[in-house]
UniProtKB/TrEMBL annotation:
A cellular component annotation (GO) from this entry: cytoplasm
Native organism taxonomy: Eukaryota, Metazoa, Chordata, Craniata, Vertebrata
Family: Belongs to the vinculin/alpha-catenin family.
Source organism of the structure: Halcyon senegalensis
Any single GO BP term: Rho protein signal transduction
Name under which the protein is recorded: Alpha-catulin
Amino acid sequence: MATSPCSSSGVSSSSSSGLGADAGLEIRTRSVEQTLVPLITTLINHKDKPKRSDKTLQAIQRVGQAVNLAVGRFVTVGEAIANENHELKEEMSVACIEARRAGETIAQLTDVANLDHPESDSHITIFTDKTGVVKAARLLLSSVTKVLVLADRIVIKQIITSRNKVLATMEQLEKVSSFQEFVQIFSQFGNEMVEFAHLTGDRQNDLKDEKKKARMAASRAVLEKCTMMLLTASKTCLRHPDCESARINKDGVFHRMRLALEQVIEIVTDSRPNGENEMAPISIYSGIKEFKNKVEGLRENLYFLSKENLSTMLEVILEHTEDFTDSAYTSHEHREHILELSKQAKMELEQLVSVWMQAQNQKTKDLMEDLEVAILKTCQCMNELKREVHSAATSLAADLLKYHTDHMVLKALKITGVEGNLEAVAEYTCKLSEQKEQLVEMCRLLRHVSGTEPLEITCIHAEDTFQVTGPQIISAAETLALHPSSKIAKENLEVFCEAWESQLSDMSMLLREINDVFEGRRGEKRVYLSLPRPGKHNANLKALKPVKLDTEEQAKIAKLGLELHLLTSDVDSETEKWEDQENEIVQHGQGMSSMAYSMYLFTRGEGLLKTTQDLFHQAEIFATEGTKLASALHACSDQVHDDDQPLLLLEAEKLISMCKQLQITAKASVQGKSATFTKVDACILKTRNVMTLLCQLLPLGYRLLRKNQAGNGCLKAAPPWREDRVRTGTNAHTPERRTETYGIKSLENHVTNMTFLESK
């Protein structure tokens, strides 16, 4: 399938990103986004101070000139790229002209010689033409974005070209009739696959959409495993040209590789064949999450959806639970519990709808309290249903993976194949088919409880792998049984068996990830969840009886928990802006966000914090982490000299004080249910206040750090793009170098040099 690289790039036609320079730009790749961030930050954060001294004016003039020079170098790179990619030359030239014009305008607006001097004292007014400054800044951002997007298209073009090479060589491999010819062509094919792997690996890491990243990872995993399968399957077919099972085995590998190559191009170009829309997999987990969000939304608005809408959503969820109740592999106990909870969910929704309709007509205090109880009961029932299907899926998976750890069927197929025992091979292929059906069903059920879209995609990939690899093992075993003395047939079966074993091993890791998500451990951030462990508590904690919040207490604290949830999202957004994710400030900020999120889950009766004592212990660790972050901010402020430095120090001291107060509250001893709830409320309230302060501190620290970096290196000249190419010319044929030459990397330094205004 021929795909135009210009049809899609690092942007789309509808903007959903805050980094869109034009209304029609949405940044899809991290490299384009991170290259633009310094420039956008400069334009947004620049303060227009009406009075400046002569010394400051001279500095601003130098900065304006430096920006213009940086733009000039950036444009030179863009023009050089355009000259080597004629299909983009016209668009790139227009964008470069616009960028150059914007740079020249900024230089003119900051030129002291062109300014009026209305005051007689030593201060004069600068940037009087605000409209001109705004227009020039917008033009600069828009044109730079266009150049970067066009450069990104070239990366896409490289991947498509590389894919086409791989496909052409695959066609040759399919038609070869001699070993000598096969060896020569396969050597070429191997080099082309290495190049394709490098290009697609870089693209996978660059994608912002986690769902696309997971799909890309799945496709690349298929191509990696199939490359060895293609080698042994093709050699077996050449050795035994009249063997039907060998031909079927080889054809299956080629077909699967073509599908994987096609999917990579769909992801890269953001297009699907014949204009088809991608159907997102629907899971019970995502259905329950959406349903609960709608139900909880009734607290704020009684009229934003219809009762039919809610009923339909529940019906869809309960239809999906039939995948569990109809499955031959679901235990009787799990089946009964799921059916019982499904029935209860319908009853709870009926009660909710009844109170909801009454509340729409008459908003009395009693009715609103009844509505709150109905909301909590409905959500609690859905949580129990989610726990039940999760338990059913994961317990089945754990049992199956444990049972098939010894790979007895695969071992038996290898032995009976070498013996040439066709009858025994047929017997064990039936057993493998049964095993395949069990594992495929396991993957389908795990998808329902996977918790995130990337994990759903991983489950689908695993299902496909078992579905395809099973028959391929069978055809490879049949070939060996027909030719028991064939070393290549034996090797071929080994390769397919290894792929099966590898997928089983991957399933164990996938199961752990699914359990982590369900328990509230969010990916890499789980290391920050500091939970009380047996033997780790101090003496006064052991003496306290752990208690849980009841439904009424959860209702009272729900609003506070929701505020905490929103703040964790804000903090996550702020930490993601930092280029250096290993920065101590970022690490502590992420840790605090993760712990605050677990406290939010506690208010909903979910997550790892099961009792109030768990919550209090988490609050202590959260406060300790906040104190460490304050120390890191102090260290950061020592490195910069700026007007905002005193503010940063003041806010850091405030953070230390608030964390100390939280620690005192969390450690305070209380007796009785009412006092315990008051302490819970106080801990979450103070955690929320700390997170609010953190939302102010992180951008302030980031801005100061950026200023420090720009101030230290802003006037260093970036090497011209042409010189870079000459210096690295010896590696010009490697995939890594080619990506850097034509892609975003070659433009990054020049964009950084456009951010001088921020440091001044």
